[in-house]
């Protein structure tokens, strides 16, 4: 029996192979004869193509090829390649029984007998539909991602290799940094850093942080291809493979210069608002103190003048009185400066002797600027008067001198000079043609560059540290020049000092004006004026008493009132009032309100407004005479003379 069973072994082995092939469903495995006719068919082939063995065995395998491949002769060519090369392997489309196509991986091996004769082909086909679909999806995803990255222009998105060299580059990177991909790929990303940052090792430190913490995010200056700088927000992420190995870095950079500048402008606006509010508060406080101080000085100065007139000539006493008067006058000058600072004085253009004004404030200037500053004054003898507000002009020159001092921290020379010039059309100052005086304040300081010079007169712009300047000085001088029909011009170069040129129009004085000013310069009644009945109104008892005393000393008859209401009662009662001198800042009824009532009831009665500062109502009669506090007797004489000239028909209030 054993000998009888041996011949059956090959048949058993063949059956096992057939069972094995039929059990494989992921691969189509079938045989072809030398002509390409199908001779065997496994279950995997049936699953792929849809044909049963009965339907397909005996047919040519070209049936699985597309019509285009059949016309191109691919079936026979694949068999020829298998014979000649020993194997044919390719990926191409195949056709199922239902006509649908699928992507297949095909291997064809020639089968030879022991003599080398071709007996057929073994074909193994694998359905790659899912793999191809996954690959296509991945390809499309990668393409979409690549298009997305390339389409982003507001962000520079690029990759770095492990050493920090650029390995990819999007259009946003080109737009922001200026490099094309050909110019930058392969270069180290430190190209984008400033020289200072490179010297500090910032690029390498960023990579170290990204490796250690996985991410590095910061803001700082970056450099474009053309050398210009921009403020950038940068995110650097470390990229690892599936095994955790570092393969490079992803870098995203955004140009946030505009945001930074907007934020800076907002901070400057907040600081400007703070400075404005602070200046407003200081101005109100200063103005209030100066107003009250003015009233005290008015009483002191007026009383001292009267005492000086009444005291006998005593060589020991008179110098003391004169010193006290000069001290009171300096106090008056100080209050004018305070009121000018608080901007509670209106602009009152008048002929001003600029040379006398500068010499008069030179001692105050020297004390203000300090011992390290030398002041030089250069004025010609024949300099004509300018048309300006003397208080504001004094404040402007002080501001310019203080700016010059601040530009010379180690000391230096400030020169205040003046010259007369006839401006013709086309002059560089762009002033209207006419006669002008050019006041100049120059220093030997550090000077300004072009950018600083261009902004120097902007309100709140300052190069000084926080708390060391308001940025209003030059803008106030500029405002004074413009209001006075003049011009402020700055000339400066870095390292060569600064010169401020203040152009002011020459005051044109006719003979009558000069004669009148000369007549009103002595403390006695002006020629041609008789004894007047004058009503003086002031809510401050000291000022009221002092004014009454000075008027009576001049020979006038005086009536008193401590409020606007009392003044109207006096006017109703006394029919022979020739003139009213009233304070401005009074409770319940201001001086201008009183003047309006008088204008209605007694239209020909002149009114003189006495005030240390003027916050006057709109529409105020410009003919209303002004008397600046604190005033001296000579000022009373002048303003009364002007009132008499302006309104000769007196005593018509009744």
Tally of alpha and pi helices: 22
Q: Give the rounded overall mean pLDDT.
A: 80
Largest sheet: 5 strands, mixed
The proportion of residues in beta strands is 15-25%
The count of DSSP E runs of length 2 or more, i.e. the number of strands, is 20
Rg over CA atoms: 51 Å
| Approximate shape | rod-shaped
Spatial strand sequence of the major β-sheet: 10-12-13-15-14
Helix/strand/pairing class, anyone?
Answer: alpha/beta
Low-confidence stretches: 1-8, 465-472, 511-528, 614-619
How would you name the oligomeric state of the polypeptide chains in this document?
single chain
Helix content: 40-55%
Distance between the termini: 168 Å
Describe the structure.
The protein has 654 residues and is an alpha/beta fold. 44% of the residues lie in helices and 22% in strands. It contains 22 helices and 20 strands. The protein is rod-shaped and about 160 Å long. It starts with a helix and ends in an 8-residue tail after the last helix. 29% of the residues are buried.
Secondary structure topology:
Layout: H1 2-5, H2 9-23, E1 28-32, H3 43-49, H4 53-56, H5 67-71, H6 74-85, E2 88-95, E3 101-112, E4 118-127, H7 129-151, E5 155-160, H8 171-177, H9 181-184, H10 195-199, H11 202-213, E6 215-223, E7 229-240, E8 246-255, H12 257-310, H13 317-342, E9 350-352, H14 354-369, E10 373-378, E11 386-388, H15 390-406, E12 412-423, E13 434-443, H16 450-455, H17 473-483, E14 487-492, E15 498-505, H18 511-519, E16 533-537, H19 541-553, E17 557-561, H20 564-573, E18 579-583, H21 591-601, E19 607-611, E20 625-628, H22 633-646
Parallel strand pairs: 10-12, 16-17, 16-18, 18-19, 19-20
Antiparallel strand pairs: 1-4, 2-3, 3-4, 5-8, 6-7, 7-8, 9-11, 12-13, 13-15, 14-15
């Amino acid at each position: 029996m054993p000998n009888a069973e041996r011949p059956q072994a090959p048949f058993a082995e063949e059956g096992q192979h057939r069972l094995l092939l039929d059990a494989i469903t992921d691969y189509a495995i079938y045989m072809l004869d030398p002509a390409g006719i199908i001779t065997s068919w496994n279950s995997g082939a049936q699953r792929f193509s849809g044909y049963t063995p009965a339907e397909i065995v005996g047919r040519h395998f070209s049936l699985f090829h597309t019509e285009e491949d059949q016309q191109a002769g691919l079936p026979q060519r694949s068999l020829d390649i298998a014979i000649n090369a020993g194997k044919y392997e390719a990926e191409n489309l195949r056709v199922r029984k239902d006509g649908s196509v699928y992507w297949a991986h095909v291997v064809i091996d020639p089968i030879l007998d022991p003599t080398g004769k071709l007996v057929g082909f073994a074909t193994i086909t694998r359905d790659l539909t899912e793999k191809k679909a996954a690959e296509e999806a991945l390809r499309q995803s990668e393409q979409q991602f690549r298009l997305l990255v390339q389409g982003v222009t507001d962000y520079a998105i690029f990759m770095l290799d492990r050493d920090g060299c650029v390995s990819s580059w999007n259009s946003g990177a080109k737009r922001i940094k200026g490099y094309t991909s050909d110019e930058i790929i392969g270069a180290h990303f430190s190209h984008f850093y400033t020289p200072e940052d490179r010297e500090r090792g910032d690029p390498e430190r960023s990579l170290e942080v990204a490796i250690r913490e996985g991410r590095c995010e910061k803001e700082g200056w970056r450099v474009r291809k053309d050398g210009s700088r921009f403020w950038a927000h940068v995110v650097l992420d470390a990229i690892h493979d599936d095994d955790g190995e570092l393969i490079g870095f992803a870098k995203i950079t955004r140009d946030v210069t505009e945001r930074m500048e907007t934020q800076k402008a907002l901070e400057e606006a907040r600081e400007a608002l703070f400075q404005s509010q602070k200046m407003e508060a200081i101005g109100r406080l200063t103005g209030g103190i100066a107003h009250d101080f003015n009233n005290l000085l008015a009483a002191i100065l007026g009383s001292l003048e009267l005492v000086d007139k009444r005291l006998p000539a005593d060589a020991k006493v008179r110098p003391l009185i004169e010193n006290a008067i000069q001290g009171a006058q300096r106090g008056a000058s100080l209050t004018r400066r305070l009121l000018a600072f608080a901007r509670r004085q209106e602009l009152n253009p008048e002929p001003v002797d600029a040379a006398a004004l500068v010499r008069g404030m030179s001692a105050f200037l020297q004390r203000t600027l300090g011992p390290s500053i030398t002041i030089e004054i250069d004025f010609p003898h024949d300099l004509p008067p300018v048309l300006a507000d003397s208080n504001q002009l004094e404040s402007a020159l002080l501001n310019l001198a203080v700016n010059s001092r601040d530009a010379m921290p180690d000391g230096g020379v400030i020169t205040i000079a003046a010259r007369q010039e006839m401006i013709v059309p086309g002059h560089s100052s762009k002033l209207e043609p006419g006669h002008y005086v050019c006041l100049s304040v120059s220093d030997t300081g550090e000077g300004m560059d072009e950018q600083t010079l261009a902004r120097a007169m902007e309100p709140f712009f300052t190069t000084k540290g926080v708390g060391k300047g308001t940025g209003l000085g030059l803008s106030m001088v500029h405002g004074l020049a413009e209001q006075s029909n003049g011009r402020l011009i700055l000339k400066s170069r870095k390292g060569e000092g600064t010169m401020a040129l203040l152009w002011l129009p020459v005051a044109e004085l006719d003979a009558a004006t000069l004669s009148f000013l000369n007549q009103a310069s002595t403390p006695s009644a002006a020629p041609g004026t008789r004894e007047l009945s004058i009503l003086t109104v002031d809510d401050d008892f000291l000022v009221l008493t002092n004014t009454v005393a000075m008027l009576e000393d001049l020979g006038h008859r005086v009536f008193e009132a401590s409020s606007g209401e009392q003044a109207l009662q006096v006017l109703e009662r006394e029919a022979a009032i020739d003139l009213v001198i009233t304070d401005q800042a009074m409770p319940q009824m201001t001086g201008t309100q009183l003047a309006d009532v008088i204008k209605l009831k007694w239209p020909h009665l002149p009114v003189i407004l006495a005030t240390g500062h003027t916050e006057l109502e709109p529409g105020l009669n410009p003919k209303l005479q002004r008397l600046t506090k604190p005033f001296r007797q000579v000022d009373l004489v002048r303003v009364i003379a002007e009132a008499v000239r302006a309104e000769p028909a007196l005593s018509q209030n009744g």
